[in-house]
Amino acid sequence: MTHTWSVQRCDTARLADVVALGNLAFGDGYFDLPKIKDILNNGAPFYTAYGETGDLIGYCCSLYLPMREAERHMKLPENAFAGRLEPETPVCFMKSMAIAEEYKGKGLADRLFASCLADAVTDGLRFACSSAWKIGDSVPMRRIFQSHGFVVHSEIPMLWFDDKDYTCVVCKGSCRCSGVIYYKFLNGKDD
Q1: Who has the most CB within 10 Å: 42, 130, 136, 180?
Q2: How would residue 49 be classed by pLDDT, with cut points 50, 70 and 90?
Q3: Is 107 exposed, middle or buried (0-12, 13-18, 19+ CB in 10 A)?
Q4: Which residue in 177, 96, 97, 182 sits closest to 135, CA to CA?
Q5: Does the pLDDT at position 189 exceed 80?
Q6: What is the end-to-end Cα distance of the chain in Å, rounded?
Q7: Which helix (H) or strand (E) holds 16?
Q8: Which helix (H) or strand (E) holds 9?
Q9: For 72-116, how does the pLDDT look when each residue is reduced to its tens digit (9 = 90+)?
Q10: pLDDT at 118
Q11: Closest Cα partner for 99 from 34, 39, 152, 51?
């Protein structure tokens, strides 16, 4: 069966769909409308994908943050990238991606991710980073990050444990999953 979809900037009229897909993929409390609106207000790339019937089938969102703030999101020590980036350097923090189950493995995640990264380059950012969910020994986003030239910086145990509003779909309570930190210099140089 051939799957078709359309990829576009996030439609603010359909934010409840994004919240629902994020919570389905990651657990209750992962997203709510205020969190989504804060992400949209940041002005960084936020793409959604819709299937033939008009249902939301995926999203990918990012934030443009100073490096020091991105490091805090990833629970890295301050100046983890010292000597390569100043703390106030704006970076693209790849915040979240979710794909409806029946569309996984069809190239949709790659297309959404590439759209966000292309916008970051167009907007003049030189660096992108993210914390990827690790479930047991598996990092579901590993292939996407690697295919786009990201490398592993470190692994942070229980990265999301302190988020008391979040109920992890794997842990069935506070998230005890690790996060793997990925990064990439968008101009291809570690400068």
Answers
A1: 130
A2: very high
A3: exposed
A4: 177
A5: no
A6: 45
A7: helix 15-26
A8: strand 5-9
A9: 999 999 888 877 888 999 999 999 999 999 999 999 999 999 999
A10: 96
A11: 51
Helix (H, G, I), strand (E, B) or coil at 162: coil
| Sheet of 178-185, strand order | 5-9, 46-51, 56-66, 90-99, 127-134, 178-185, 151-156
In 54-150 the beta strands, taken as DSSP E runs, fall at: 56-66, 90-99, 127-134
> 134 φ, ψ to 5°?
-115, 120
pTM of the model: 0.92
Distance CA 59, CA 7 (A): 9
Hunting for tokens 């000597």 — which residue is that?
Answer: 83
Is residue 165 within 8 A of residue 132, CB to CB? The reply is no
Q: How confident is the model at residue 158 (pLDDT cuts 50, 70, 90)?
A: very high
- In order of their start, the domains of the chain are 5-185 (3.40.630.30)
Distance from C-alpha of 170 to C-alpha of 134, rounded to nearest angstrom: 10
Burial 58-89 (b: 16+ CB within 10 A, else e): bbbbbbbbebbbbbebbbbeeebbeeebeeeb
Q: Which of 98, 102, 92, 80 is nearest to 148 (CA)?
A: 92
